[in-house]
Design a protein that fits this description.
single chain, mainly beta, Jelly Rolls, 2 domains, four-stranded mixed β-sheet, 12 strands
Protein backbone atom coordinates (compact mmCIF):
# COMPACT_ATOMS: atom_id res chain seq x y z
CA UNK A 1 0.00 0.00 0.00
CA UNK A 2 1.46 3.33 -0.97
CA UNK A 3 1.71 6.39 1.28
CA UNK A 4 -1.26 8.19 -0.29
CA UNK A 5 -3.59 5.23 0.33
CA UNK A 6 -2.35 4.97 3.95
CA UNK A 7 -3.03 8.66 4.53
CA UNK A 8 -6.54 8.34 3.07
CA UNK A 9 -7.27 5.34 5.31
CA UNK A 10 -6.01 7.20 8.38
CA UNK A 11 -8.17 10.23 7.55
CA UNK A 12 -11.24 8.03 6.97
CA UNK A 13 -10.59 6.21 10.25
CA UNK A 14 -10.35 9.50 12.15
CA UNK A 15 -13.53 10.82 10.55
CA UNK A 16 -15.69 7.74 11.14
CA UNK A 17 -14.27 6.19 14.30
CA UNK A 18 -13.46 9.18 16.47
CA UNK A 19 -15.87 9.46 19.41
CA UNK A 20 -18.01 12.54 19.08
CA UNK A 21 -19.81 14.65 21.64
CA UNK A 22 -22.51 16.87 20.28
CA UNK A 23 -24.85 19.38 21.79
CA UNK A 24 -27.58 21.22 19.96
CA UNK A 25 -28.38 24.80 20.79
CA UNK A 26 -31.36 26.83 19.67
CA UNK A 27 -30.74 30.57 19.89
CA UNK A 28 -27.46 29.99 21.76
CA UNK A 29 -23.92 29.68 20.48
CA UNK A 30 -22.62 27.61 23.40
CA UNK A 31 -25.12 24.92 24.39
CA UNK A 32 -24.53 23.43 27.83
CA UNK A 33 -26.93 20.45 27.50
CA UNK A 34 -27.81 17.89 24.86
CA UNK A 35 -30.62 20.25 23.85
CA UNK A 36 -30.24 23.84 25.05
CA UNK A 37 -33.09 26.19 24.12
CA UNK A 38 -32.78 29.90 24.80
CA UNK A 39 -36.28 31.10 24.04
CA UNK A 40 -39.93 30.10 24.13
CA UNK A 41 -41.17 26.56 23.58
CA UNK A 42 -44.45 25.68 21.91
CA UNK A 43 -46.10 22.34 22.63
CA UNK A 44 -48.75 20.45 20.71
CA UNK A 45 -52.18 21.21 22.18
CA UNK A 46 -54.97 18.63 21.96
CA UNK A 47 -58.60 19.17 22.99
CA UNK A 48 -60.39 16.01 24.16
CA UNK A 49 -64.12 15.80 24.81
CA UNK A 50 -65.25 13.13 27.24
CA UNK A 51 -67.55 10.31 26.19
CA UNK A 52 -69.46 7.44 27.77
CA UNK A 53 -66.42 5.15 27.46
CA UNK A 54 -62.87 6.06 28.63
CA UNK A 55 -61.28 8.61 26.29
CA UNK A 56 -57.68 7.65 25.42
CA UNK A 57 -54.93 10.23 25.79
CA UNK A 58 -52.46 9.22 23.12
CA UNK A 59 -51.22 12.33 21.36
CA UNK A 60 -50.04 15.79 22.31
CA UNK A 61 -48.37 17.28 25.33
CA UNK A 62 -50.79 19.94 26.57
CA UNK A 63 -54.17 18.25 26.85
CA UNK A 64 -57.39 20.19 27.46
CA UNK A 65 -59.84 17.74 29.00
CA UNK A 66 -63.50 18.62 28.52
CA UNK A 67 -65.73 16.15 30.40
CA UNK A 68 -69.35 16.17 29.23
CA UNK A 69 -70.65 14.55 32.44
CA UNK A 70 -69.45 14.10 36.04
CA UNK A 71 -66.31 11.91 36.48
CA UNK A 72 -65.81 11.06 32.81
CA UNK A 73 -62.64 9.02 32.42
CA UNK A 74 -59.59 10.06 30.38
CA UNK A 75 -57.07 7.23 30.10
CA UNK A 76 -53.29 7.72 29.89
CA UNK A 77 -51.16 5.10 28.11
CA UNK A 78 -48.92 2.67 29.95
CA UNK A 79 -46.18 4.37 31.97
CA UNK A 80 -43.89 1.42 31.15
CA UNK A 81 -44.30 1.87 27.39
CA UNK A 82 -43.44 5.58 27.53
CA UNK A 83 -40.67 6.26 30.08
CA UNK A 84 -40.02 9.98 30.41
CA UNK A 85 -43.29 10.94 28.70
CA UNK A 86 -44.79 14.18 30.03
CA UNK A 87 -48.34 15.49 29.84
CA UNK A 88 -49.80 18.81 30.92
CA UNK A 89 -53.47 18.11 31.74
CA UNK A 90 -56.13 20.74 32.37
CA UNK A 91 -59.82 20.26 33.01
CA UNK A 92 -61.36 23.10 30.99
CA UNK A 93 -64.94 22.36 32.06
CA UNK A 94 -65.82 24.06 35.36
CA UNK A 95 -69.08 22.12 35.67
CA UNK A 96 -67.78 18.53 35.67
CA UNK A 97 -64.93 16.57 37.25
CA UNK A 98 -62.55 14.70 34.95
CA UNK A 99 -61.21 11.33 36.13
CA UNK A 100 -57.71 10.43 34.93
CA UNK A 101 -56.74 6.76 34.81
CA UNK A 102 -53.97 4.74 33.18
CA UNK A 103 -53.73 1.45 31.34
CA UNK A 104 -50.65 0.52 33.39
CA UNK A 105 -48.90 2.02 36.39
CA UNK A 106 -49.84 3.84 39.56
CA UNK A 107 -50.30 7.56 40.23
CA UNK A 108 -48.15 9.17 42.95
CA UNK A 109 -47.97 12.80 43.96
CA UNK A 110 -44.44 14.17 43.91
CA UNK A 111 -42.42 13.37 47.05
CA UNK A 112 -44.94 10.72 48.14
CA UNK A 113 -44.71 6.95 48.30
CA UNK A 114 -48.47 6.54 48.72
CA UNK A 115 -50.67 5.80 45.72
CA UNK A 116 -53.10 8.65 45.08
CA UNK A 117 -56.24 6.51 44.98
CA UNK A 118 -55.64 2.77 45.57
CA UNK A 119 -59.35 1.95 45.23
CA UNK A 120 -59.71 3.20 41.64
CA UNK A 121 -56.08 3.71 40.48
CA UNK A 122 -57.10 7.13 39.21
CA UNK A 123 -57.29 10.76 40.30
CA UNK A 124 -59.67 13.62 39.62
CA UNK A 125 -59.35 17.10 38.15
CA UNK A 126 -61.95 19.36 39.72
CA UNK A 127 -62.45 23.00 40.74
CA UNK A 128 -59.69 22.97 43.39
CA UNK A 129 -57.26 20.96 41.22
CA UNK A 130 -57.73 21.81 37.55
CA UNK A 131 -54.19 21.47 36.15
CA UNK A 132 -51.40 18.93 36.66
CA UNK A 133 -48.17 17.82 35.05
CA UNK A 134 -47.70 14.06 34.82
CA UNK A 135 -44.37 12.33 34.12
CA UNK A 136 -43.74 8.63 33.53
CA UNK A 137 -40.77 7.12 35.37
CA UNK A 138 -40.96 3.99 33.22
CA UNK A 139 -43.18 2.15 35.71
CA UNK A 140 -45.60 4.64 37.27
CA UNK A 141 -46.83 8.22 36.83
CA UNK A 142 -45.74 11.10 39.07
CA UNK A 143 -48.32 13.88 39.41
CA UNK A 144 -47.19 17.47 40.03
CA UNK A 145 -49.94 19.88 41.07
Amino acid sequence: MDDVAKKILIILFLIFFTPTYSQTGVNTLFPKSTLDINGNISLKVVNLNGSSSPTPISDGVYISLNPQAQDQVFNLPSAAEYPGRMYFLRNVNANFTAAVSTSSGIFYYKNSSNEINPATHSFYLYEGLRSVIIISDGTNWTVFN
